[in-house]
Amino acid sequence: MCSLVTTPIYLKWIYILLEDNDISVINIVHQLSSHHYELVQLSQDIAKNFELTTLVGALMWFKNMIETVYYLLFVTVNGTDRPIVHYGINIMFLILNLYWLFVVIRIYVRIKNAANKSASYIHEIWNKYALKRAIDTKIRYLQLTAVQFYATKLNFTACDVVSLDWSFCQMMIASITTYVVILIQFQI
Question: For residues 18 and 126, is the Cβ–Cβ distance under 8 A?
Answer without folding.
Answer: no
